[in-house]
Q: What sequence folds into this?
């Protein structure tokens, strides 16, 4: 079966450095983790020892102890971060902290003062050990916030552990205390012979650590000679033989891109300079998500959504996405992301390259992984629906004509993670648009070079540059590397689709070449309004700019009272008729009169349903050419649907 051409090979000196680094694993780790001189190098270096007690889950509390040996001076200011790297929202972790106490090594109580939302000033003797204890409430279940019950727990070092202000954590340990029947897993180095303690070095390394505890299920596997593990924290409908091959296959394609054609050294991949990699999966009854870390990731997934082919494939794309971030953002990253400020926003205009490229590759490389499985042809249809979903999501945002990718990146802190009912009208989903623009970019490179070059080569070269120089890139650095590596000049492309808001030409730049087209069903009626149920009322949540509802005069926040004189019901199954059934029965061109309540005042408006502009379908052409079939296989490795019909 055809596979993508291996990316460009680094020079001989670079390859020799890889080999030398593998002889000395600790040096290789430092190449990855500390290639840029630390901005905190001039700061006081300090040691820290943390204990996280999770035996109080019924109270939803983590009990935390922080020990800082032999403090210099007579005062220490401790601070708790306000956000977690990889998440572009101020989280205010200190809001969860209570019962703050401070002691010396003899157990004597120390005087302290909280003088800012995230800072505590503590008085002590010069040379004394400082011991601080407090509690963290874990009531919000996300991959960025602490969470604990009597059933399981998950946390981030940023969300639970304070550290001295303006000091560098040179060495640290984390010890966990868990209830009987639980085990812990922390994305760090376990101390030999101690099942409950982990260690590490470096301030940014510390705040790039997460953990999970509970009745854990762990499945080990290997990539490039490096141990990996997939961990679940409780009950769910997951089966090892159904999920692990899918996840591992996609992740192996990631490692393949960044390693290129370099050989294993002593049985290990030179692209994986870590001792291990963990995928910690928190199961719940809400939506999924993930947050990347240098030696692993913390995922959130629906507990009972791991059985169907579609759900398993979606889960695999999430694992692949966070694995790509091991290289693309944890190593390859903008220059201003090498030294984080944990008490304020860290802005970037490069979320297109960080998240857009990654979102493109999480689908593509999952597909290439599927191509290596025995039943590859059975997955093609479902895999193509992932691309259809990407297109539909982007095209459903009226804000695609307003906000470009650079603006979406810079404003993520105040907009993307704080979306209100009007978000879609003025903003974009930079993951979705970023993925599609990356697809068009890759297709353009492939078309110019007849598949001799691709975005794969660019990603690999970015990794080589990082190892060779330790440098990041400025806002247009990736664009310049594209020219150097592939010969494709993306200047006009950038102006139209990255810094501009031109409509994305899916057919012309991408789909025609691989034997596909987009069709728009003409029987899918659209009103241009999203409804939500609130306090038993049906509310117009978002009225889309340019849609039928806006043209009829509907407004965000209106209550939908009746349709064509018939009272609407907020929940189905409570009567013979409800608003959802009426709307579903519409055809484009049909009209209906709605009764609204706006700030309590009743009014009537008449809507005319239109064809839904976002409900596009991805279809293979009837008779793909040999060139189209070859281009499709070169791109994703899977058999073309037209090829399978023969």
A:
């Amino acid at each position: 079966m055809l596979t993508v051409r291996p990316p460009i090979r680094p020079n001989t000196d670079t390859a020799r450095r890889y080999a030398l680094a593998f002889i000395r694993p600790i040096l290789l780790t430092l190449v990855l983790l500390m290639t840029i001189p630390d901005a905190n190098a001039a700061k006081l270096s300090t040691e820290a020892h943390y204990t996280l007690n999770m035996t109080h889950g019924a109270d939803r509390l983590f009990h935390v102890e922080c020990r800082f040996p032999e403090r210099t001076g007579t005062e220490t200011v401790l601070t708790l971060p306000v956000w977690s790297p990889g998440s572009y929202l101020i989280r205010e972790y200190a809001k969860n902290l209570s019962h703050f106490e401070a002691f010396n090594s003899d157990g004597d109580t120390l005087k302290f003062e909280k003088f800012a939302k995230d800072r505590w000033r503590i008085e002590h003797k010069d040379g004394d050990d400082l011991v601080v204890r407090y509690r963290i409430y874990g009531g919000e279940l996300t991959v960025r916030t602490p969470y604990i019950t009597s059933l399981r727990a998950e946390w981030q070092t940023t969300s639970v552990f304070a550290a001295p202000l303006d000091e560098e954590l040179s060495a640290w340990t984390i010890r966990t205390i868990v209830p009987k029947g639980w085990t812990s897993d922390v994305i760090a180095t376990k101390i030999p012979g101690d099942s409950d303690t982990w260690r590490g070095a470096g301030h940014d390394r510390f705040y790039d650590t997460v953990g999970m505890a509970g009745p854990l299920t762990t499945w080990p596997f290997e990539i490039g000679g490096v141990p990996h593990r997939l961990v679940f924290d409780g009950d769910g409908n997951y089966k090892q033989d159904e999920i692990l091959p899918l996840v591992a296959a996609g992740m192996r394609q990631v490692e393949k891109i960044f390693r290129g054609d370099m050989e294993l050294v002593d049985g290990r991949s030179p692209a994986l300079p870590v001792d291990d990699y963990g995928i910690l999966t928190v199961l719940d009854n809400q939506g999924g998500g993930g947050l990347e870390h240098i030696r692993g990731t913390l995922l959130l997934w629906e507990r009972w959504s791991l059985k169907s082919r579609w759900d398993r494939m979606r889960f695999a794309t999430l694992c692949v996405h966070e694995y790509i971030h091991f290289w693309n953002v944890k190593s390859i990253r903008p220059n201003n992301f090498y030294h984080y400020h944990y008490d304020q926003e860290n802005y970037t205009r490069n979320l297109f390259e960080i998240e857009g490229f990654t979102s493109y590759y999480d689908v593509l490389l999952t597909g290439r992984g599927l191509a290596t499985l025995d039943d590859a042809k059975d997955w093609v249809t479902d895999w193509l629906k992932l691309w259809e979903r990407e297109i539909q999501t982007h095209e459903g945002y009226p804000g695609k004509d307003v906000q470009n990718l650079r603006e979406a990146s810079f404003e993520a802190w105040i907009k993307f993670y704080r979306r209100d009912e009007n978000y879609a009208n003025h903003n974009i989903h930079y993951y979705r648009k970023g993925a599609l623009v990356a697809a068009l970019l890759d297709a353009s490179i492939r078309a110019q070079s007849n598949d001799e070059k691709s975005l794969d080569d660019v990603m690999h070269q970015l990794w080589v540059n990082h190892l060779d120089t330790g440098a990041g890139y400025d806002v247009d650095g990736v664009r310049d590397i594209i020219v150097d590596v592939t010969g494709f000049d993306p200047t006009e492309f950038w102006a139209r689709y990255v810094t501009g808001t031109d409509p994305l030409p899916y057919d012309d730049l991408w789909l025609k070449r691989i034997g596909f087209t987009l069709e728009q069903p003409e029987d899918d009626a659209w009103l241009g309004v999203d409804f939500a149920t609130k306090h038993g009322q049906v509310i117009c949540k978002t009225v889309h700019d340019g849609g039928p509802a806006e043209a009829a005069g509907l407004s965000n926040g209106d209550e939908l009272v009746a349709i064509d004189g018939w009272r609407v019901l907020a929940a189905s199954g409570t009567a013979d008729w409800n608003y959802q059934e009426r709307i579903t029965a519409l055809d484009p061109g049909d009209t209906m009169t709605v009764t609204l309540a706006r700030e309590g005042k009743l009014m009537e408006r008449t809507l005319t349903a239109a064809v839904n502009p976002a409900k596009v379908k991805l279809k293979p052409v009837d008779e793909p050419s040999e060139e189209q079939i070859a281009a499709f296989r070169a791109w994703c490795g899977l058999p073309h649907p037209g090829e399978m019909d023969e």
User: Anything to note?
Assistant: The radius of gyration is 27 Å. Residues 147 and 220 are 25 Å apart (CA to CA). The first strand starts at residue 44 and ends at 53. Confidence is low (pLDDT under 50) at residues 1-41.
